[in-house]
Amino acid sequence: xxxxxxxxxxxxxxxxxxxxxxxxxxxxxxxxxxxxxxxxxxxxxxxxxxxxxxxxxxxxxxxxxxxxxxxxxxxxxxxxxxxxxxxxxxxxxxxxxxxxxxxxxxxxxxxxxxxxxxxxxxxxxxxxxxxxxxxxxxxxxxxxxxxxxxxxxxxxxxxxxxxxxxxxxxxxxxxxxxxxxxxxxxxxxxxxxxxxxxxxxxxxxxxxxxxxxxxxxxxxxxxxxxxxxxxxxxxxxxxxxxxxxxxxxxxxxxxxxxxxxxxxxxxxxxxxxxxxxxxxxxxxxxxxxxxxxxxxxxxxxxxxxxxxxxxxx
Amino acid sequence: xxxxxxxxxxxxxxxxxxxxxxxxxxxxxxxxxxxxxxxxxxxxxxxxxxxxxxxxxxxxxxxxxxxxxxxxxxxxxxxxxxxxxxxxxxxxxxxxxxxxxxxxxxxxxxxxxxxxxxxxxxxxxxxxxxxxxxxxxxxxxxxxxxxxxxxxxxxxxxxxxxxxxxxxxxxxxxxxxxxxxxxxxxxxxxxxxxxxxxxxxxxxxxxxxxxxxxxxxxxxxxxxxxxxxxxxxxxxxxxxxxxxxxxxxxxxxxxxxxxxxxxxxxxxxxxxxxxxxxxxxxxxxxxxxxxxxxxxxxxxxxxxxxxxxxxxx
Lengths: 313, 313
What we know:
Two copies of one chain form a homodimer. Helix content of chain A is about 45%, strand content about 15%. The first copy, chain A, has 14 helices and eight strands. The termini of chain A are far apart. The mean pLDDT of chain A is about 95. Chains A and B meet through helix 8, helix 9, helix 10, helix 12 and helix 14 of A and helix 8, helix 9, helix 10, helix 12 and helix 14 of B.
């Protein structure tokens, strides 16, 4: 059986700036204890960053100690490879040994080599290591990236294909898994975005073709159009494959995030659909959509311009 | 090239009780004139029904005359087979000859024989005829239903598979198309529901396997969890197959329904996911969810009970 990783708090933080009310997090942890989810990613760990970023961007030790006591699941934090070097590891990860089970690393394919050095350091500290490699729809454009994947063996426990733009289809998932499997025997993961409402079918397709871990979040809470919805994934695994699911616990955690959804209103819409289906960066779209300052049509116009520019290059 | 039918007003009427502000309908018609959509289904026609039902449940002649003037598209109305007999046709359809291009008939598979008689009457009046046959996930359980499909040839112009429960997957679509094609050469249509966020992939799969008409609605507005989103479908057809789309017009019509979405809040959620993935009737769930009187968990409990009952039978 493949594993499920819920990263609601970490990925949802893009909307709350990584501030979450403690009672909500506690409700989340308690519900997850009763659900067939294996890993909970509860935030980033980071050296100090200039901008203001909330608690779960730093995941302080006192908080991790508290969650470790309350949670029966494997706990996960993620590092942004672009910000963290091997010399930061003692500061960033030293204090969380014994609290955290897996450390994931968010990786730009351009920096795979640097990420491998960082990951070796993480691995030596005794953590499971997950690679979250972004921009899977463009991997073939990154020179030798695919060939270099053989170096991942023995370092990464999971190697995630991240559909950063939310624009891949089941056939792309199958093709990319084939490319990865030709180079390495690492366990494959999939992190889907929902711009085109493809997160579920892409995840099911990934599993069918051998993926061993899938990411999901409650109500799909996550950057931009959001992710595979945990409640959708579990409901389908229950009806299709007989996975036992405590629907009361699932209802409780969905309910708990209801007010947060009402406030932030993530989910797909026309601007995210356009950016997803044309592999345009999500960050701008999310800024434009969430400030609610721009009309849909001015956003759409800006995206059309980006599309033309991409075509012209 | 397959055809696209937008049925926002007809299917969205389940939320508004078929009342829509006239300026919204006019904006809709005007935007659709600029979009690559072939048919617009703007309501039901019906004999008088006991309950109060709004304008677009009856689609009065003065309204159809107005829309006929404003729209460059083929116009469609739908009949509920359960309410309409062949002797009603003069009253119900006589006055709309020349205004309406296609008449669809919503059909319970159990009443295919009766529907064929009604459809012959409709066809004789000069309309294109669409069959919208419900409950596709259960067709194999309806005795000789599949075999009787040979009688559809020459009567129906389009024969729709309707995923009433919102629970079918691409493989089911492929299998059902195969069953239908073995019996009849009628043009196949697909009307998808979005409980499991499968409407897009199911529709794309249907096209790939020979479907010739697809239903969609703006923001997915439609009964229960709603339908394939017109804006998602067009955006994907644009990026994947180069279909020319006027994104300003698309943005305008999406915008126009924004306030309606805010008010009625359709779309999928855990209760719809559970009912969809277990082929449970949608009407109850929609009543429970939209009154906002019941907690998610009491709805979920009720659905679990229905599931058990179905299993016990």
